[in-house]
Amino acid sequence: MTSAQVDKGQPDGPESAEAVTAGEGYQRGLGARQIQMIAIGGAIGTGLFLGAGKAIDRAGPSLILAYAIAGLVIFFIMRALGELLMYRPVSGSFSEYAREFLGPFFGFVTGWTYWLFWVVTGITEVTAAATYMTYWWDIPQWLSALVFTVILYGANLISVKLFGELEFWFSMVKVTAIIGMILICAGVLTIGFSDAGDTATVANLWNDGGFFPEGIDGTLMTLQIVMFAFLAVELVGVTAGESKDPKTVLPKAINTVPWRIAVFYVGALIMILSVVPWSNFKPGVSPFVAAFEEMGLGIGAAIVNFVVLTAALSSCNSGMYSTGRMLRDLALNGQGPKAFTRLTRNGLPLAGTTFSAALMLVGVWINYQWPGEAFNYVVSFATISGMWAWIMILVCQIRYRAKADRGELPQSSFKAPGAPFSSWFALGFIGLVIVMMAIDEDARISLYCAPLWGLILGVSYLTLKSRNPGNTSFAKR
């Protein structure tokens, strides 16, 4: 039972789920159209538009298989989340479920870790967006970063509907760009137009060194890049408390995951790698830009630059949204400053959003002043902190299903297929990714940051608990 329930005298137990959701104070301003595009856009970001270039260089065409398998794992994660959401749709989502099924400490760690994930992501994305602006205009990077941050901050304080509308159009740009690329590549393959028409063939997927040109090891080493591309797909869970009809809209959004990944990742890569041999791609260069250049379509670079700009702004916008909700959920449970519990008349978490936006601005300044290794260490933490949320979703779903099967909790109306085995499989896959990160010298720093953050959270939790001995939020359930 949350502190919000205690304060309002609500009854304990699953029967109060709807009351808890209604009592959060948020306004249900997100409609089906916006939730669907938030779900689609969450799976499409700079990890695909830019990061895929490095992954192709490491794995060749076998990257397609890596995305397909990882996509199946993401589907298992999202269905596990959907089962929990239909049991109890709350805005606190991951931290609230961790608090209920694993204890207050895990709720504390999950909430603050997911908050940090989005703050760090927001810092990197708004800085990236400012960098992309220099493609067209020679303006100071700090000025663009400041303007973007202020605009997105203001939008998030007007209404949740405006946040949803921004995400809708940001996602539309990304989706349109990928579909356009697929259609152009299909035209090159079938009609043979453009400079790449003579060499474009599906046989490019296995002609240059085979489907696994760098061996199975090369494919495995791309898993952390692949999983990083999917980070933020779980954001749809944070919208549960503000969806107009969560029990109808959220399952539909989650069930679109397979075809989203099939089209936007697997389909796009099959087309690009059929038109352009994999050995032509280089790390640090967007495969979309490289494909346009290979086809002799110079305008492609400008188009992709606009798309990655919107992808970065979309991610920063999501960070503004989610951080305020996470901080409020922590504060309601006595695990954060009380100031974060307050909502505006429009039902928006002003203090939490403002605090997070301020940190994003500080991060932009730090990146401008000291763009060296220290900042990169902080950025590298985003991957492991994002995967922590996935781990918590899966573990909580396993615990929930066991209790529901024993009759201790009501059955969800949206059961995860194959669970709990599918959830255990997904956990094992995430474990494999972490092992690959430990082996990869470039990604290993993420694992060094995690224990330090865990120590900070552990000390903070014990300090809060000792100072609030009568707070039931720290009691084991």
Write the layout of secondary structure elements.
Elements (H helix, E strand, L loop, with lengths): L2 H6 L8 H6 L9 H11 L3 H4 L2 H8 L3 H25 L6 H8 L2 H30 L7 H18 L1 H31 L13 H4 L7 H6 L2 H8 L15 H9 L2 H19 L11 H8 L4 H34 L17 H20 L3 H33 L15 H19 L5 H23 L10
Helix pairs in contact: 3-10, 3-14, 6-13, 6-14, 6-15, 6-19, 6-20, 7-8, 7-19, 8-9, 8-17, 8-18, 8-19, 8-21, 9-10, 9-17, 9-18, 10-15, 10-17, 16-17, 17-18, 19-20, 19-21
Descriptive tags:
mainly alpha, 477 residues, single chain, 21 helices
**Overall outline:** globular
Distance between the termini: 8 Å
Helical run tally: 21
Contiguous low-pLDDT stretches (5 residues minimum) are: 1-23
Give the biggest sheet.
none
Nearest-integer average pLDDT: 81
Radius of gyration: 22 Å
Task: Bin the helical content.
Answer: 55-70%
Percentage of β-strand residues: under 5%
Backbone structural class: mainly alpha
- What order do the helices and strands follow? HHHHHHHHHHHHHHHHHHHHH
Number of strands: 0
Question: What features would you describe in this structure?
Answer:
This protein has 477 residues and is mainly α. The chain has helices at residues 3-8, 17-22, 32-42, 46-49, 52-59, 63-87, 94-101, 104-133, 141-158, 160-190, 204-207, 215-220, 223-230, 246-254, 257-275, 287-294, 299-332, 350-369, 373-405, 421-439, 445-467. Helix 6 (63-87) runs antiparallel to helix 15 (257-275), helix 7 runs antiparallel to helix 8 and helix 9 runs antiparallel to helix 18. The relative contact order is 0.19. The model is unreliable at 1-23 (pLDDT under 50).
